[in-house]
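#lab-general

N.A. 3:47 PM
ok so I finally got the sequence cleaned up, no stray characters, all 264 residues accounted for. can someone with queue access submit it? mine expired

B.Y. 3:52 PM
send it over

N.A. 3:53 PM
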Amino acid sequence: MGNMTEVNKTLYIPLYGKSLVSRQHIILDDPDAERILRNETVAFRRKSKSKWLAYNMAMRARVFDDWTDNLLQQNADSVVLHIGCGLDSRCHRIQQQYREWIDCDLPEVISLRRQYYQETDCYHMRELDASDPDQIAGLPGSGTAIIVLEGLSMYLTGDQLNGFFRAVQDKYRKVHILMDIYTVFGAKASKYRNPVNDVGVTELHGIDDIGSVLSGLEIHMVAEHSFTPGYLINELKPADRIIFRILFTGRLYSRIYRLIELGS
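B.Y. 4:20 PM
back already:
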């Protein structure tokens, strides 16, 4: 993995989950994830290889896919920004055509990504640090931006997220954002249970009051979504459904991890 930082190494964890379910022909069809993992030498530890985590990661990805498809259907001229894209293949998985899609991540991730993905007239990769709002100004303009923030917010402070949102608000007339967040309790609990610990990540940030992060902005909370909708749980084997519901659909899980939609 070369000189990948601890945060960047976390990109392999969801990739493993998507590859696993794709091979089982459930939840997500992701031949890119299967192909990349065949070529990458990654030593996954026990927590990272949990099938329950794999199902959860894949369902999260599928919910983001379906949300993006829905927004593109309503806003065909939008630019799609996948911030913190890692090695994800959402640009290939979605059903809707797009005018312009930009996958953004830190330089070493984009360098690795270019080994597996090719740019086209409507698909581009861009080096971008979400903690530096000045970099947003260099992205292509559009009236509307559909912004995917999957597995990213917990690596940014509240002030950094506010700066990021302010920058996209200034750049685009209208924005649609889907973002997963840890609660403060969830961020603390993750020190003991999160598979990102396996690759050396020790500091994660949680949000209890999204309003404080959006202070002074025109961007507001639109809706809260489920990571684990019933139609995806039903793709699991019957016995697995029971255990999965206990692990990932109870009240405790919602106190740890949330999926929120924002808009302007």
